[in-house]
Amino acid sequence: MHGLFTPDFDLASANQPAADTRRASSIHVENLHRSFGADVALDGISLTVNPGEFFTLLGPSGCGKTTLLRLLAGLDEPDTGRIEMGGAAMAGVPPHQRSVNTVFQSYALFPHRDVRGNIAFGLEMRSWSASRVEGKINEIAGLIGIFDLLDRRVDQLSGGQRQRVALARALVNEPDVLLLDEPLSALDAGLRSRLQVELKRLQRQLGMTFVFVTHDQEEAMVMSDRIAVFNQGRVIQIGTPQEIYEQPHEQFVAQFMGHQNFVPITGRDEFGIDTLLGHFAGQFNPGDLLLLRPEALRLNTSSHESCHSFMANVDECLYRGGLTEYRLISGGLSLVAMAANQGGASYQPGERVEVTVSPSGMATLYH
Amino acid sequence: MKIAQPTRLLRDSGHLLLTVAPGALCIVAFLVLPSLYLMGMAFLSNGPYGLPTLPLSLQAFRELAGFGFLGWSPGNLYTLLRSVWQTLLATVLVILIAYPSAYYIASRPSRYRALLLLAVVVPSWTNQVIRSVGWMNLFAPGTPVSNLAAALGFTAPPMGLFPSQFAVIVGLVYNFLPFMVLPLYAAFERLDFTQIEAAQDLFARPFAVFWHAVLPQTLPGLMAGTVLVAIPAFGMYVVTELLGGGKASMIGNLVARQFAQASNWPLGAAGALIMIVVTLIGLRVLRQLGRRLGGDREVVL
After folding, report:
1. Cβ-based contacts of A110 with chain B (< 8 Å)
2. What is the rounded CA–CA span in Å between residue B107 and residue A83?
3. Size of interface A-B (CB pairs under 8 A)
4. What pLDDT is attached to residue A305?
5. What mean pLDDT do residues B40-68 have?
6. In Å, how far is B27's CA from the nearest CA of chain A?
7. How confident is the model at residue B299 (pLDDT cuts 50, 70, 90)?
8. DSSP E strands: which ranges in chain B?
9. Is residue A1 part of a domain?
10. Residue of higher predicted confidence among A123 and B301
11. Subunit contact A169:B194, Cβ cutoff 8 A
12. Same domain for A314 and A195?
């Protein structure tokens, strides 16, 4: 299997006339509602995707992210609300008139057509001449590295190959916006992480607007320029991966990003906050929980002036290769600390340790 | 091990033979042998009492081709062509009605589907003759339907819609509709909607969506339905006899007449043989068509 790019691939090379004419589209969505019977799939969604951005809709299954994708594709209509793409209102515009293409979760390749026929479909529907179609297919097949698959039947392809063909079938149309509905979820872990990198590179080089749906927070962080975290039909938070991970607004977002260290805030004064772990001095944003990032908790290190510290008992010590995970008990709370294995000391269950944490390793949030 | 394998193979094939034999014997005794007898009969001469006798001759085929005492007449040829035409017309109409019906049923909530399917199937539990007589009563001169047709200028007032080719086609379509709806319904029930959405997403207009995403998926059902409808329709006897009144008789009527009234068994056998040949040709054409439409995949009939 080739990579998405041959090493000497250069998008600016002469046989890429389409790259110049392609315009990435912005997406503006305002107060979208969509219900299916009693199920509210989207409950007032508003967001803006910038041109050329890799934008991810992240959330647990059933949170409405796929519904939003279908509304963008035109496969479904909102009950109320507005969708604009590239400044144009999309209400009532059928899918075949939108410059949007989708990579479906199940890939939805046409089994009665070979790979070439699948990729050609969108071009044929727009009445391209056979010779232009042929040239365009060769171009995209080279780009995605599926040249040797073109004459295969769909049922002769592996999962990863199908994924690439589905991607090629959408990309060959050079849409203003590419929608991807959990395109990697059916693949095994190794292939998946490779394709994550390739997809991200492809998006950056094409400068196309990608809207990507996933329930995997690591995937979202690796690939996205910005992430919108969904829950129960609402957007909880929009931000860069770093913002979402380091400054989650709500416990749901933090938990979804893998955080476990939530410390209830019991009081607040002009010097800082009171928590179950003691007093933390400093300026804190409003909120009723203090989040401690596990990799920011240091054990038995000489503390700086600005750092907070508290005592804890080691409950468990889990060796994870590059990292060691410590389960700590302090103030009746169980906390997780991740320590990089850099040859320092390790601690056994039962040991008492001093935990220090710098202000940048903390955030306040709402329950 | 090396010895055990062949004995096991022997035992397996013996077992297979034993289980298949009764069915195979039945088929040979009650289908293959009579068919061969019938086919052989077509090459015999017609005896004085209508029974086939030696010597071997092609007289029956000459008669079938229209050569009789009074020279050549195209009557039988017309009957054959009319059979093919009426079969094609009825099959196409059945497809046009069954496609949306099957889709409609398959897209209902599951609790209604069984009921709707039952509504399609139940009429076929009644005898063909009785249902045809029903149509006769509906289409006879002076009935509301016939009066309406006359008022709209389709028929002359005293004529009624029956007997006519129109009545025969209606009868055929009505008779065979369930045999198309059921396989199409089964195909629609398994329909992969994401393929339809993918086609829409890839700029296909509604008809192109049907042609490229729905038809290929339902093709096996369509082919099965076409076989189930076209073959019996081609050999139809009852409907044409009752509703056609001699105006729309098909090759099935011709064959039946030779055995029942005209007492010319070799000619009847020759007609039956032609029916089989035309049916096989039809199946062959259908298979090619299925391959063409199905992207070179074998669509199992």
Report:
1. 195, 198-199, 212-213, 216
2. 29
3. 66
4. 66
5. 77
6. 36
7. low
8. 45-46, 52-53, 67-68, 71-72
9. no
10. A123
11. no
12. no
Amino acid at A54: F
- Average confidence (pLDDT) over A66-76: 91
- Note whether B195 contacts A110, CB cutoff 8 Å: yes
Closest CA to B132 of B96, B106, B171, B165: B171
Both A149 and A226 in one domain: the answer is yes
CATH superfamily of B74-293: MetI-like (1.10.3720.10)
Question: What is the spatial distance between Cα A270 and Cα B5, in angstroms, rounded to a whole number?
Answer: 89
Residues A184 and A84 in one domain: yes
Residues of A in contact with B218 (CB under 8 A): none
Contact A280, A290 (CB under 8 A): yes
Q: Alpha-carbon distance A280 to A359, whole Å?
A: 9
Which of B192, B201, B209 would best serve as a mutation to test chain A binding (most A beta carbons within 10 A)? B201
Sequence-distant (≥ 6) Cβ neighbours of residue A14 within 8 angstroms: none
What's the CATH number where A202 sits? 3.40.50.300
CA-nearest residue to A112 within chain B is B295
**What pTM did the predictor assign?**
0.76
Q: Are A173 and A280 part of one and the same domain?
A: no
Q: Which chain A residue has its CA at the smallest distance from B202's CA?
A: A122
- Give the closest of A102, A109, A126 to B201, CB-based: A102
Spell out which residues of chain B touch residue A113, defining contact as CB-CB under 8 Å: 295
Compute the CA torsion angle A248, A250, A255, A256 (nearest 10 deg): -70
List the structure tokens of A10.
């250069």
pLDDT higher than threshold 90 for residue B96: yes
Given its phi and psi angles, is residue A216 left (phi above 0), alpha (psi -120 to 50 degrees) or beta? beta
> Percentage of chain A with pLDDT > 70?
92
- The strand order across the sheet containing A308-320 reads A298-299, A352-357, A308-320, A323-330, A333-340
Which residues in A lie closer than 8 A to residue B192 (C-beta atoms)? 108
Q: How far is A183 from chain B (nearest CA, A)?
A: 14
> How far is residue A271 from each of residues A283, B171, B188, B202, B224, measured CA to CA in Å?
7, 93, 69, 60, 81
Distance between A328 CA and the closest CA of chain B, angstroms: 48
Tell me the pLDDT band of A4, cut-offs 50, 70 and 90: very low
> B85 Cβ partners below 8 Å, 6+ apart?
none
| Pair A123, A165 in one domain | yes
CA distance B272 to chain A (A): 38
pLDDT digits (tens, 9 = 90+) for A224-258: 999 999 998 899 999 999 999 999 999 899 998 98
Owning domain of residue A55? 17-253
Average pLDDT over residues B219-239: 86
Indicate left, alpha or beta for B24 from its phi (over 0: left) and psi (-120 to 50: alpha): alpha
Same-domain status, A202 and A270: no
Q: Which residues of A touch B201 (CB under 8 A)?
A: 73-75, 95-96, 100-102, 170
Q: pLDDT band for A10, please (50, 70, 90 cuts).
A: very low
Task: For an interface test with B, give the residue of A112, A151, A156, A171 to mutate (most B CBs within 10 A).
Answer: A112
Question: Lowest-confidence range among A237-246, A332-341, B134-143?
Answer: B134-143
For A122, the closest of B197, B202, B205 (CB atoms) is B202
Q: Which residues of B make CB contacts under 8 Å with A?
A: 192, 194-195, 197-205, 208, 212-213, 216, 294-295, 297
**Nearest alpha carbon to residue A145 among A9, A13, A12:** A9
Q: Where are the domains of chain B?
A: 74-293
Q: What are the structure tokens assigned to B296, written together?
A: 């070179």
Q: Quick one: pLDDT band at residue B216, thresholds 50, 70, 90?
A: confident
Supply angle C-alpha A50, A89, A118, rounded to 5: 75
